[in-house]
Amino acid sequence: MNIIEITEQEAQDRLEELVDSTESGTVYCIVRPDGSKVMMVPADPSKIKFDDDDLALYTQHDEAS
């Protein structure tokens, strides 16, 4: 999963674009001026775009088998 880090100001300036992108599966980390961070993720977690390495982390294990 690729997380794109942006400033709070950039998020405010591009809000509509980011909402559309997020609902298509992009994940953002919004950094506030005080250094705290907020994640912006799709409402439907099944839309989050995982790359092959991330997917393997969650699917290739021996637990629960």
Structural class: alpha+beta
Give the integer mean of the pLDDT values.
Answer: 86
CA gyration radius, whole angstroms: 14 Å
In DSSP terms, counting alpha (H) and pi (I) runs of 4 or more, how many helices?
A: 3
Q: Give the ordered list of helices and strands.
A: EHHEEH
The counted number of beta strands is 3
Fraction in helix: 25-40%
Physical arrangement of strands within the biggest beta sheet: 1-2-3
As residue ranges, the low-confidence spans are none
Q: What is the terminal-to-terminal distance?
A: 25 Å
User: Which percent band covers the strand fraction?
Assistant: 15-25%
- What spatial form do the alpha-carbon principal axes imply? elongated
The biggest beta sheet reads: 3 strands, mixed
Strands, helices and their partners?
Layout: E1 3-7, H1 8-13, H2 15-23, E2 27-31, E3 37-40, H3 52-59
Parallel strand pairs: 1-2
Antiparallel strand pairs: 2-3
